[in-house]
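Budget justification aside, the reviewers requested a transparent look at the raw inputs and outputs of the sequence design task funded under Objective 1. We therefore reproduce one unedited record. The lines immediately below are the structure tokens for a 226-residue chain.
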């Protein structure tokens, strides 16, 4: 079966835009390194969401470039960002205390694998060209809600939404929501529930690109991909 193809840029845009819909006014949200940092670019200007970066910035704004770029103000991924009015800077120990202390309403992270129980793997063994552990363990355990925003499959086309994680676990059964460019899954006590699907993809394409079992919501919706 020939799968639908999206550009890298469009893939990331779809995921980040969809993740940005998950916050409510007043939420304190931490964005993981990589694709999740782009979520801040799509939150409406009139919605007051406070983004925290684990390198020590509360009040992260959109990515900056050109004359607006200040190389002293970066997110955890080293990308230059705005410091919104009222922002504050602090050390990594304070950032970790916020994460571990239950002060983060939601975190958005990437993943290498998520399984049907909501367990997460997003780091691998040392000396390999892959992500390290970072602060993900603290974020996943300490945040009130855990949202995974990731490309649907690996670079090799392998499933990332799996029946059981085979990579080292970051956390056991802590994920609440999975967002990819193809679909959205709620993680429930009964397992994965497919709630949204990208209209560019068929149900057969979704089923063939995951190894996890899932059920389809009676109120299945199309993702907004414009």
């Amino acid at each position: 079966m020939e799968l639908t193809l999206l550009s890298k840029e469009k893939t990331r845009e779809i995921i980040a835009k969809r993740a940005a819909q998950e916050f409510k006014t007043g939420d304190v949200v931490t964005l993981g390194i990589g694709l999740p940092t782009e979520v801040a670019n799509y939150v409406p200007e009139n919605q007051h969401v406070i983004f925290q970066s684990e390198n020590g910035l509360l009040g992260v704004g959109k990515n900056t470039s050109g004359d607006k770029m200040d190389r002293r103000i970066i997110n955890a991924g080293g990308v230059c960002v705005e410091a919104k009015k009222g922002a504050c800077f602090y050390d990594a120990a304070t950032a970790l205390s916020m994460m571990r202390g239950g002060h983060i309403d939601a975190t958005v992270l990437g993943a290498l694998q998520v399984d049907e129980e909501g367990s997460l793997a997003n780091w691998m063994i040392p000396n390999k060209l892959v992500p390290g552990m970072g602060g993900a363990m603290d974020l996943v355990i300490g945040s009130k809600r855990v949202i995974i925003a990731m490309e649907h499959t690996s670079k090799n086309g392998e499933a990332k939404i799996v029946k059981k994680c085979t990579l080292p676990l970051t956390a056991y059964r802590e994920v609440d929501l999975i967002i990819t460019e193809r679909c959205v899954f709620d993680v429930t006590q009964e397992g994965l529930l497919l709630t949204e699907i990208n209209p560019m993809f068929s149900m057969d394409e979704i089923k063939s690109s995951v190894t996890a079992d899932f059920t389809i919501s009676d109120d299945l919706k199309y993702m907004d991909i414009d």
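The first helix runs from residue 8 to 19. The first strand starts at residue 28 and ends at 31. Computational costs for records of this kind are itemized in the attached budget.
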